[in-house]
Amino acid sequence: MSEAPARPRRRRGPRLPLPPLPPAFLPQPPPPGSQRGAPQTPLEHAAEAGKSVVDWVDERTSLSGVTRWIMFRKVPKGTNWFYTLGSATMFAFLSQAVTGVFLAMYYRPDASGGAYESVRYISTSVFLGNFVRAMHKWGATVMVVLIFLHMARTFVWGAYKYPRELNWVIGVTLLILTMIMGFTGYLLPFDERSYWATIVGVNINGTGPIIGPYLSDFLRGGPEFNATTLSRFYAIHMLIIPGAIVTLILAHLYLVTKLGTTAPPWLKATPDEPELREEAV
Amino acid sequence: MAPARRQPKSKYTLDRGMPGAFEGETVTRRRFVTGTVHGAGMLMTAGIVLPSVAFALGPIFKNVTLGWQTVGTPNDFPDDNYVPVVITTSPGIGEAGKSTVYIRKRNPAIDTQPPSEYNRWVAITSRCAHLGCSVLWVQAAEHFICPCHGSVFDLEGVRTSGPAPRPLDRFYTRLYNGVVQVGPRYSVNTELRAFSPRDPGEPLDGIGQYAYPSRPSVRKLPGSV
User: How far is A190 from chain B (nearest CA, A)?
Assistant: First the structure.
């Protein structure tokens, strides 16, 4: 065989190779003796049907490119378990979202006693109610802890530096939104602890000069803790903030995918082409 | 060779040879339709967003007044000790809307403010001036003590210890058809000068009265003190 002629060098520089596919995804040669491409066993027929469905969707959406861009991207050398803290935080949020949606099926934001009764009903009478409520309650703490670990990892690694500053800003906004979730969610069981913690918390908000008193009025829906305060907190907790968090998480993930992750700070950068060196002229 | 610079278009439609153009017209049909669609879109967005925001912010500007509540007869309250009375501060939510008020008869030996028809009884709130916990009147110590962060207030409700930035709030009181009634709340600074009711945690001495202005939702009783 003769060697293929060297292709002319493209003017815009070398084309970067596509992200690698895992071996399981690569096309495999058929076993000897079998007819190429024809499904034999029922399992293969089922696989063919699945492929047709995926092809049908992919032909109309080009989702495979997006999926490959998100899932099969390159990660730097030295990537370790600390890099999973962000995903862990997102999983904690998803757990909060799912359990929260189901808690909302039984919860009643009624400040004249109905809220406390509905939470008591969830805890004592609903099948697995105590479990789902405990998931939501303890999951909230887990999420806050994971956020701070994730933030510490980003800080210690120096992963907030150029070009990832915007992702740090989005992350801090997510932290603040999570704190608002914790603050508004704390009132919802409407027991003594919820009530007094909210009184104190709203008054802490009110100690900001000039706008503080108005902020308190906004949070309470009036000058005193009143009938609409609980529904206000409930709406903020289950509608406004979750929507904002989902939106910002998507932006956060987009930037992570676009910019890639950083190598650990203890790894020195190595040049791609070792033969490239500076010549003294 | 660089391409010849394009002649900039005239802003007059007449110069650009557009059909139906007239003298002095500068708005093309494309510009007009674009502007109309953008304007209509903004109008519709504002029509949804502005009422929603006003709906959420409305309570900030709504004045809430509570009527006078009867708390007892004149003989119920001595002038050297407080009697706790439960009043309603937010109607319609049961126990969560109730609050304790400590009341005693005005004692000229202690209370140096000029007497008026609204301070013949001294009614002091149980809401701590620090962050709003419930203070307790401890008769043996003759002080109000807050369990949350340890603020201590004397017989007049003036802070003697702890983190509270101002004295305890008070209520207007009056004699009405032979019974004692409690009216709106008001805040006082360290000299016991009356101000519109503030939230806990907001100082009223010096610059504090300007940094924490009175809000439209609560005003003190007009024409008094």
Answer: 9
Whether chain A has a CB inside 8 Å of the CB on B211: the answer is yes
Contact residues for A16 (Cβ-Cβ < 8 A; gap 6+) = none
B148 contact residues in A (CB cutoff 8 A): 200
pLDDT digits (tens, 9 = 90+) for B27-43: 888 999 999 999 999 99
What pLDDT sits at residue B42? 98
Q: Does A240 touch chain B (CB under 8 A)?
A: no
pLDDT grade for B224, boundaries at 50, 70 and 90? very low
**What would be the CATH architecture of the domain defined by A81-259?**
Up-down Bundle (1.20)
Q: Is A260 on the interface with B (CB under 8 A)?
A: no
Q: Could you give the CA distance from residue A206 to residue B219 in angstroms, rounded to a whole number?
A: 17
Locate the chain A residue with the closest alpha carbon to B65.
Answer: A223
Instruction: Indicate the helix (H) or strand (E) that contains B173.
Output: strand B170-176
Alpha helices by DSSP H, chain A? 42-61, 63-71, 85-103, 114-124, 129-157, 165-187, 192-206, 212-220, 227-235, 241-259
Domain ranges of chain A: 81-259
Which among B56, B96, B218 is the nearest to A225, CB-wise?
B96
pLDDT digits (tens, 9 = 90+) for A2-15: 555 565 555 566 77
List A residues 181-210 in contact with B (Cβ-Cβ < 8 A). Answer: 190, 195-196, 199-200, 202-204, 206-207, 209-210
CATH of B69-211, one of 3.40.50.11810, 3.20.20.70, 2.102.10.10, 2.40.30.110: 2.102.10.10
Contacts of A209 in chain B (CB under 8 A): 211-212
Q: Name the token pair of A260.
A: 């890639």
The first and second tokens of residue A267, run together, are 């790894």
Each residue's pLDDT tens digit, B72-100: 999 999 998 999 999 999 988 888 899 99
The residue ranges of every structural domain in chain B are 10-60, 69-211
Buried b (16+ CB within 10 A) or exposed e, A22-52: eeeeeeeeeeeeeeeeeeeeeeeeeeeeeee
